[in-house]
Amino acid sequence: MKKIITLSMFFIACSLFAQEEDKKKLTISGSVDAYFQTYLTAPDNEGVSFGTAFAGQSGFAFGMGNIIASYEGEKVGAVLDLVTGPRGAGATFNTDIVDGIVNQAYVYWNVSESTTLTFGRWNTFLGYEVIAPAANFNYSCSYLFSSGPFSHMGLKADFALSDDVSLMLAVTNPWDTNDVSFSGEYAFGAQLGAYGQFLNLYYDSGNNGGLGFEIDYTGGFDLSDSFFLGINGAYNDNDGSGFYGAALYPQVATSDSFSVGLRGEYFALHGDASDLPSVFATTLTGSYTLENLIIKPEIRLDSWSNSMPYIDNDGAAADNLAAFTLAAIYSF
Question: Where is the signal peptide (predicted)?
């Protein structure tokens, strides 16, 4: 009888342990991307680029590779996102000495069904686009995304106020300071989400290369089963100067495997001067999906006013630049 009771308790303990293990889950995901880019209005061998984040090389190039390990428990969990390649170096500013390949690294606690606390480094909540190209429709990046923060290091609290309304509050190191706050200053962020539309706020003192104040709207609407319109607008001010702009992202799905989308963006600098530059950038992108592989052919044309940041095929200064890009992105 004692043996039977002992075996029964053993099996019950194993069952409870297995149930606890079932509540924990380790998942591995990530992406790899590469591209070919040639300039249509400038030579490929002069180091010309649009000046926005990432995808700034002509010829064949590697974008980035990242591996995301996510461990999810019943109440707590952790995420580690390791990245390599030029896009990863640009996203992390390649300034971290010890952890230079860390894109994201954070722990979280689901305090309740409606409240989550996150502590560590996470990618920014500002803007329509993100670092990993698999989550963007266009392969190249906008000026609005390139001008804002890429990541934040600090503490944030997410509140699900209802099924369709959310609130996020954050205190972090200043703009893109991913290790420590050398100045002893901190930044504050907030996001109010309602029915798929998001109003984002960010503030730091603007000292030591900080961003200052930024208000950002990100959202979109399904105008039909196959037509989506994404919207992004932002205004930034740092002691009287900064930037502002808006971008529209109309996207049409022509089949289950192919979509075409346009990004039209106006971006301008503001300040005391009356002739500060502005740019209108148009990007037409196709997106063909084959299992986990996405092929993106893209044509982009940027045209500046009050500035000539490019050169033409004759080597003369130019206010516009056009390029063709073919990108391949694999997600797992």
Answer: 1-18
Distance, CA of 177 to CA of 154 (rounded, Å): 10
For the stretch 60-78, pLDDT in tens is 999 999 999 999 999 999 9
| Residue 326 token pair | 């073919």
Q: What's the pLDDT band for 97 if we cut at 50, 70, 90?
A: very low
CA 27 to chain centre: 21
Half-sphere exposure of 95 (CA within 13 A, CB side): 8
Three-state DSSP class for residue 180: coil
Question: What residue has token string 């699900």?
Answer: 160
User: Which phi-psi region, left, alpha or beta, contains residue 140 (left: φ > 0; alpha: ψ -120 to 50)?
Assistant: beta
The DSSP H or E segment spanning 4 is helix 2-22
Residues 221-260: tens digit of each pLDDT: 999 999 999 999 999 999 999 999 999 999 999 999 999 9
User: Is residue 100's pLDDT more than 60?
Assistant: no
- For the beta carbon of residue 152, count every other beta carbon within 10 angstroms: 29
| 25-331: CATH topology | Porin (2.40.160)
Stated as kind and residue range, the H or E segment containing 147 is helix 143-147
CA quadruple 116, 122, 127, 132: dihedral, nearest 10: -120
Domain boundaries, the chain: 25-331
Does this model's pTM top 0.70? yes
